[in-house]
Amino acid sequence: MTLLKLLWSFFQIGLFSIGGGYAAMPVIQHQIVDLHGWLSLPEFADVITISQMTPGPIAINAATFVGLRVAGLPGAVVATLGCVLPSFLVVLALAVLYYRYRSLKLMKGILAGMRPAVVALIASAGWTLLVLDFWKGQRISIDLASIDFIAVGIATVALVLLRWKRINPILVMAGAGIVGLVAYCATGAG
Amino acid sequence: MNRTPRPVRGWTFYGRLFAATFELSAFTFGGGFVIIPLMRRKFVEKFHWIEDREMLDLTAIAQSSPGAVAVNASILVGYRLAGLRGTLVAVLGTVLPPLITLTLVSFFYDQFRDSRIVSLVLKGMQASVVAVVLDVVYVLARGLVKQRELVPILLVVLSFVAAAVLHFNVILILLACGLVGALTTLAGHDPRDVEEVP
User: Fold this and answer.
1) Which residues constitute the domain of residue A56?
2) ipTM surpassing 0.85
3) Which residues have C-beta within 8 Å of that of residue A47, sequence separation ≥ 6?
């Protein structure tokens, strides 16, 4: 019964969190905190923090965490499954349509219009991250003291390594983690 | 249909697909769009399994569908490469890293949350993620500029302002640009073929 509740609850989370990431947060909170009381509000805030620090989408992380709490490992698996199921159905249907109709002229026009938008959206996500990482106050300011120069340095070096040395991004990220630890410790910042 | 040939679907292929999605998911923090640049590097540049334009189309679908972008994108890539079986392999690879990590983290919940070392390492990694995203934006934007057409460049600029400055709904932006694309086609403009990579 608990497993079914988990499945249904996370199915709804998967279904109604369009756009992913932070768009999913209010939906998750409604289901987990308000409706079922599986987590308290501070615990929910912790899940969000942990999600930002660990790999994977917030919804999947929340599913694992809540599932474990409520029904152990089977709970985690069932909740994750529920979360992924709506994507599975909708995305597969769209994929079939895409590959069937993408050679239509009108469809090509629509896709040609959407492609620049996707580039812009990736750029926008990059911009949000840049502001968040480079300015400690999380908003742009010309005050030099509010700029995190270690982050700016790491990002600049990483960009050079990626663009001109063609180094594997995963390696660059792992290296940046070590440099970050050493640099922030050495300067007493962070 | 005239598309890039599917890779040979043997054990090696499924192993590679699983390893690739697992690795991508394990190193994508905070979810969302960050996985797209990493996927592009892997599937477009390294394996040559998918083309740039197709990857952008798949991203548009992943973004406008319900659920996590990372999961949606792997469903699409898996389906494109090896049908339903490819989808299952790709989704498993994407879902396992957060499942394993969160299971471990929940055992050491308090220590992990308060660890200074963990938070400093993650801070350094996040700074490099900015570079990963900027690198991909550069490559994709260069491709658009090379087309020497006004409409796509205009759409990029307007979409960026709408998303980054005005914080419009992402799906609204995608739909609006799709509409513009449809209207220019109806007005007699011939859209480029998916297969024509510059």
Assistant:
1) 2-101
2) no
3) A39, A61, A62, A65, A66
